[in-house]
Design a protein that fits this description.
Structural class: alpha+beta
Radius of gyration: 15 Å
CATH architecture: Roll
CATH topology: Thiol Ester Dehydrase, Chain A
Distance between the termini: 14 Å
Shape: globular
Order of helices and strands: HHEEHEEEE
CATH class: Alpha Beta
Largest sheet: 6 strands, antiparallel
Oligomer: single chain
Length: 149
């Protein structure tokens, strides 16, 4: 997300610039996910799982849900950062409540910041399937740092 061209932008402005130029992080692009909402302290990602993200047991791999939840938490935190600030996930705890399949339809991960400090941030996210059923939840601890040029 960070490059010298957007060094003066705060985190929310960086995300908005990325969305308006149709740029995505490579992992998000590879999994076919979309950032569909972002405001300060809040982010929503959506995706439609298919067989390409299945595990050997015939369901969606847990890493797919983890990526949605981690992304929602991370972008929610990034949206509150000032210019030349970054973040990295220190810890992600996920509770899987319902398995996903290609029949799950569009799944939606909603992330929000629960506490924001100068060096550490805390966020949480929930993942629902197309029928509105809760499939997974996450809490995240994120390191917040200065970006050197």
């Amino acid at each position: 997300m960070f490059d010298e061209a957007n060094a003066a932008l705060d985190g929310l402005q960086q995300i908005q610039a990325m969305v308006s130029s149709n740029r995505k992080a490579p992992m998000i692009e590879k999994l076919g996910l979309d950032l569909v909402e972002v405001e300060r302290g809040h982010a929503v990602f959506e995706g439609t799982p298919d067989r390409s993200v299945y595990n050997p047991l015939g369901g969606v791999h847990g890493g797919y849900a983890a990526t949605l939840l981690d992304s929602a938490c991370g972008i929610a935190v990034h949206s509150q950062l000032g210019p030349r600030r970054g973040h990295s996930t220190l810890e992600l705890k996920i509770s899987y409540l319902r398995g996903l399949t290609e029949a799950s339809g569009v799944v939606r991960a909603v992330g929000r910041v629960t506490a924001m400090g100068r060096r550490v941030a805390f966020a949480e996210a929930s993942l629902h399937d197309a029928a509105g059923r809760l499939c997974a939840t996450a809490t995240s601890t994120l390191l917040v740092f200065d970006i050197e040029s």
